[in-house]
Amino acid sequence: MSVIEAPRSQARPARKRGLNLEKWGWIYMRASGVVLLVLIFGHLFVNLLVGEGVKAIDFGFVGGKWADPFWQWWDVAMLWLALIHGANGMRTIVNDYTNPGTAQKVLKGALFLAATVLIVLGTLVVFTFDPCPAGSPADLLPSFCPAV
Predict the structure, then answer these.
(1) Residue 142 resides in a domain
(2) DSSP class of residue 94?
(3) Residue 92 predicted with pLDDT over 70
(4) Over 80: is that where the pLDDT of 140 sits?
(5) pLDDT tier at 79 (50, 70, 90 boundaries)?
(6) What range does the domain containing 55 cover?
(7) Does residue 29 register a pLDDT over 70?
(8) Domain membership flag for residue 104
(9) How far apart are CA 61 and CA 144, in angstroms?
(10) Is 25 helix (H, G, I), strand (E, B) or coil?
(11) Is residue 65 part of a domain?
């Protein structure tokens, strides 16, 4: 005869006190998702609906937009939130479909490395972008660059 445990019995040992990273990851996904909606729809509105719409998007449009620190920070916030949000989602998938061990550590390490490299490179591109590089032929420069 088998015995069925009481429904409120401790099947697992009591959780340790301290920082619950899974809870904070869950909260981050919800908060970043809401902020990303605002950032993405603001980005789409400005790029596609204001002015001449999609026909106006070219090198000069991006160069002019990134000349303003507000848009630099807007795009960097969108980049950081989207990459961290996506990497955290992928981490959850790795946790769900792999067993703890070497494979899981390698996959999580690859996710962390890829997200870090993309965040660093994307941030550098946004803040070091110069649409008017010195020594460039005048016919190749956007119209808003001062004539040299």
Answers:
(1) no
(2) H
(3) yes
(4) no
(5) very high
(6) 24-130
(7) yes
(8) yes
(9) 10
(10) helix
(11) yes
Q: Quick check: pTM over 0.85?
A: no
pLDDT, tens only, 1-19: 788 777 775 656 666 788 8
Q: How many folded domains does the chain comprise?
A: 1
- Cα–Cα distance list, 59 to 49, 55, 113 (Å): 18, 12, 30
Q: How many CB atoms lie within 10 A of CB 63?
A: 17
C-alpha to C-alpha distance for 55 and 72, rounded to whole angstroms: 22
Euclidean distance between CA atoms 87 and 114, whole angstroms: 9
| Amino acid at residue number 23 | K
End-to-end CA distance of the chain: 93
* Residue bearing tokens 């990273």: 21
What CATH number is attached to the domain comprising 124?
Answer: 1.20.1300.10
Distance CA 33, CA 102 (A): 31
Q: Residue 138 is encoded by which pair of tokens?
A: 């005048």
Residue 74 belongs to a domain: yes
On whether the CB atoms of residues 141 and 132 are closer than 8 A, the answer is yes
Contact status, residue 73 vs residue 43, Cβ threshold 8 Å: no
- Name the region of 7 (left: φ>0; alpha: ψ -120 to 50; beta: rest): alpha
